[in-house]
Amino acid sequence: MKAGFYDTLIRQTEALLADEDDLIAAMANFSALINDNLADLNWAGFYIVKNGRLVLGPFQGKVACTRIEFGKGVCGTAAALNTTQRVADVHQFDGHIACDAASNSEIVVPVRQNGQVIAVLDIDSPLLNRFDEDDQVGIELLVKQFENCLFG
């Protein structure tokens, strides 16, 4: 069931970003696509690597943390390790940064250009254990499609 859902979103991503070459515009529309289509979210957006740290980029949701150091919180850990972080209960994640007290679970996927992390896609939910393995696979494929559209 979820595979078909994510396949549809991948096709929508391709159509949405087919002729877009501006990273900020693409991030803005992509975060809106995620926020509009995934249920039970309270935040979806990007942190962009600038000067060795993560800086808030386009997003959908409440006011967010502006800067995150590599290795700090779920986003900084994903960026530092260059791996997806899927957290069932953010309150159990050592060093979690609580930008929104309503967030209970989170998934963060690195965005890469030529293998280098240039940003992370951060998605939060007020539900515990919102993201399962199928969601992780689907969201990673969505990010791969995002990368392919923007960077070839």
TrEMBL record:
Pfam families: GAF_2 (PF13185)
Domain GAF: 39-146
InterPro entries to which the protein is assigned, alphabetical: FRMsr_CS, GAF, GAF-like_dom_sf, Phosphatase_reg/MetRdx
MF-aspect GO terms: L-methionine-(R)-S-oxide reductase activity
Gene Ontology cellular component list: cytosol
Protein family: Belongs to the free Met sulfoxide reductase family.
Entry-linked PANTHER family: FREE METHIONINE-R-SULFOXIDE REDUCTASE, GAF/PUTATIVE CYTOSKELETAL PROTEIN
Name of this chain's protein: GAF domain-containing protein
Organism field: Shewanella holmiensis
